[in-house]
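Good morning,

Attaching, inline, the backbone tokens for the sequence recovery test we're adding to the shared suite. The designed sequence is right after.
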């Protein structure tokens, strides 16, 4: 029986000449299925808003939006971690301040947290009095079952950094999305602590 060689993708197969077409079809189907399976986690990823769209949503009437970068020192990091009850992963903080009529109307922060194994990026708007305004998820790379409803995000509005701003206290946990709820609550606490310790005092000064 005569054998032949057939290259399919990066693989080289040997088979009887009469069966090569059937082998090619089977291998192509197998490779196609494996490609779908490997690509499946990417299908979960969703981008809801770009950073520009989120800023426009946070500051629809702003005359000017200024991007600023702050470098935290050791003492600030210590104070922030104590207030947030969480560790800081970076000493470099980038934020956006909106101005209307010569005064600051709000400060927006963007943060990325790992939910289970994949990231979530969100924006938190802090009002001049230090309380939360809008909280929005920009992108989410976990399965959509882990994503809480928009109504849950609205629970953060008006909240301040205190002992009650914790999951299952002022912030309810959602069945099936508890990891997301915890990651979001921890992230929001860190941003509020950064604002209180460093940004608000810098803006006032």
């Amino acid at each position: 029986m005569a054998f032949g060689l057939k290259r399919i993708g990066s693989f080289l197969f040997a088979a009887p000449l009469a069966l090569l077409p059937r082998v090619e079809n089977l291998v192509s189907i197998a490779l196609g299925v494996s490609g779908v399976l490997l690509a499946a986690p990417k299908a979960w990823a969703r981008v809801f808003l770009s950073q520009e769209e989120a800023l426009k949503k946070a500051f629809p009437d702003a005359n000017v939006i200024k991007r600023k970068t702050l470098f935290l020192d050791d003492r600030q990091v210590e104070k922030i971690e104590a207030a947030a009850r969480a560790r800081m992963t970076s000493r470099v903080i980038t934020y956006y301040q909106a101005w209307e009529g010569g005064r600051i109307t709000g400060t927006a922060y963007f943060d990325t947290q790992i939910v289970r194994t994949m990231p979530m990026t969100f924006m938190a708007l802090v009002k001049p009095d230090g309380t939360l305004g809008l909280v929005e998820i920009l992108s989410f790379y976990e399965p959509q079952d882990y994503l809480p409803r928009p109504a849950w995000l609205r629970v953060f509005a008006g909240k301040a950094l205190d002992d009650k701003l914790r999951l299952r206290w002022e912030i309810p946990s959602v069945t099936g999305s508890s990891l997301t709820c915890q990651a979001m609550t921890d992230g929001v606490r860190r941003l509020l602590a950064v604002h209180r310790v460093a940004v608000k005092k810098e803006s006032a000064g």
